[in-house]
Design a protein that fits this description.
Order of helices and strands: HEEEEHHEEHEE
Largest sheet: 3 strands, antiparallel
Number of strands: 8
Structural class: alpha+beta
Number of domains: 1
Strand order of the largest sheet: 1-4-8
Strand content: 15-25%
Oligomer: single chain
Radius of gyration: 23 Å
Length: 186
């Protein structure tokens, strides 16, 4: 069989959305995200007592999150991906992806993922966590697409190799967003 066969925009979007939903720590795996990355986190550092005149002081430092991540519904990922592609000219997401548009599709998918997915780190935790940022909408290098099914050039057997390549590209393009902390001394 020549062409992309029965690979629709929606079927490929679903594969990527399922991967994001499985791997991002603020979606279905929110319980695995440590408290240092969530709202309400605070940590108190007690500083050794000091003597001043006739009084003894117990200084302390309270650390709290200046930015943090909240749980996002898994259905948000697929609906945002579908809206993203519809805004780029794919009116029927159930149509087959024409080979002539496949590279534009991949480029748009990488743009979507590199905008929405970030790694986060904190000085109060040694791990690195994948986060889906549903409010991030500054996409780089996107292309308008057509759903013209002429010129199908890619064999269906090549699809898994292309998805492996896609996931490698996406993982190499993720940014790291550190958690910022406020320090309050008293």
């Amino acid at each position: 069989m020549s062409g992309l066969g029965t690979f629709t925009y929606n079927s490929m979007i679903t594969v990527v959305a399922n991967w994001i939903n499985t791997n991002a720590n603020n979606l279905a795996n929110f319980s695995s995200l440590p408290a240092a990355f969530k709202a309400g986190y605070s940590y108190t550092i007690n500083i050794p007592k000091t003597q001043g005149g006739n009084e003894t002081y117990q200084p302390r430092c309270i650390v709290s999150n200046a930015n943090y991540f909240t749980q996002t519904n898994t259905s948000t990922v697929i609906s945002q991906m579908q809206s993203f592609f519809q805004a780029r000219g794919v009116s029927n997401l159930n149509s087959n992806v024409p080979a002539s548009e496949f590279l534009h599709f991949i480029n748009n998918l990488v743009s979507f993922c590199s905008t929405k997915l970030v790694y986060t780190v904190s000085q109060f935790n040694t791990g690195r966590y994948l986060i889906y940022q549903n409010n991030n909408t500054t996409f780089n290098s996107t292309y308008q697409m057509t759903t013209n099914e002429a010129n199908k050039l890619i064999e269906a057997t090549d699809m898994m190799n292309m998805f492996d390549m896609l996931f490698n590209i996406i993982s190499q393009n993720l940014r790291c967003v550190p958690i910022k902390h406020n320090f309050t001394f008293s």
